[in-house]
Amino acid sequence: MATSDFWQRVSTPTHAAWSGETAHRASSPSWGKSRMWMALDVVTVLVAATIATTIEKHTGPVTGARQLYHGSLIHGRSMSILLALLCGFIVALLIISRRMRLYSPANLTNFLHEQRLSAQACFSAGLLLTGTLYLVRAEDIPRGIVLITLVLVAVLLSLRRFVYRIMLYRRFDRGLDTRNVLIVGTGPEAHALRHHIDSVRHLGYIFKGFTDLPDTGSNADTTSQDLVLALDSLFRHARTQFIDEIIFTSPCDRNLVQDVLELARIHGMDLRLVPDLYGGLAWNSPIEYLGQFPTIPLHRGETPEIRLVLKRVIDIIVSATLLLLFAPILLIIAIAIRLDSAGPVFYKSERIGKKGRVFRCLKFRTMVQNAEELRAKMSHMNERDGVLFKIARDPRITRVGRLLRKYSLDELPQFFNVLRGDMSVVGPRPPLADEVKEYKLNHLRRLSVTPGITGLWQVQGRQDPSFDSYVSLDLSYIEKWSIWLDIKIIVRTVGVVFSGTGS
Which of 223, 295, 298, 397 has its CA 20 to 30 A from that of 480? Predict the structure, then answer.
């Protein structure tokens, strides 16, 4: 990301300024992600206090902790009083930060505004701390520790949010973690919102089409080919486009909005309104700014943020560890492929990932160079039903390739895809574009999550030629997903690999 591009993004104006008068309208962010950010704030304060004490008292962290426990860190001050003051500062910081919406999604706020609020929250909590010190007459507590702690907390919190925002923008640039949006209405407001979403990329939203429902009051013409006229067709279309949010931009009948709201809850989609009170439907609802556009969220789907972060951490640890451990084997396999047949070492194929995103999937080459051309001539030999293509003794597979496939060694390079975030260790296998074209509507559910290297089908039904069984196992995984299920699949995959049951 170019530096100038980043500063252009962070300086985008926003109207979400916080004040005591407008605080009651602030949106409540996902509680799961809020708890994660609040926990990180607590850790940041503890680290800052430890560093400040080490600098001021010229003592190490272990010695300082021992002195704190025995009440000798600060002469005359017991451990309980010091911990009470520290906990009070932490609680004040968390409450103020939450009131200032610092735990809201970063893409919905302006960067410079967020940095200002971060410093304001820190020093507001600091004022409460210093006021408490004055009231309890704690003149013996070194002011240097208090001052250094406040400065370090402000710097560390700002730095952490800065780094997180850069990482978030880069993922948006690669099409990761973005949200697909369907706009209800075809009037000037709808087109203005569409232009805003397309031009301000750091919002992380991708426009997927307009919808013109009855009684929306839209008069403007549109050349969009993504128009859905019936309510039942709206959500069928939304599923095929992997829509995350539906935004109403034109006034329409309150009962219609209520019907869409109920269906949005059923389908797990978010619903927003560009403000209009809709006969009281949006009363007492918070106002969120989507860039410069005020919206009223009527429903917000529950996302297991903490579990998804933990899943990503496991992906990074597992993939990095395996790539380091198997580095010599990767080199040996690469040499063997080069000696066995002509062609590149790696096979790169375009696969369909989460929400229909196209990415290049890496594998060791196990077939002859013209394998794709030969596939069309061998379609009559396909042993799988549905959209899958599989031949037990495929003549296109090389000698080394047959060995690699037997023990699934050809898929080792896909751990690079995991590190990049294109794939996960566990999840449905990423399909080819030609396969997705033949999917039925219920099959598209497989693309609602990040694809994986292994999954339920690999450990339970690998030899089952039924495509329906293949899909049902993937859908079962999506419905029952948990971190513990991922761990069990990883352990069972090890047994499958060593048994040599690969194709």
Answer: 298
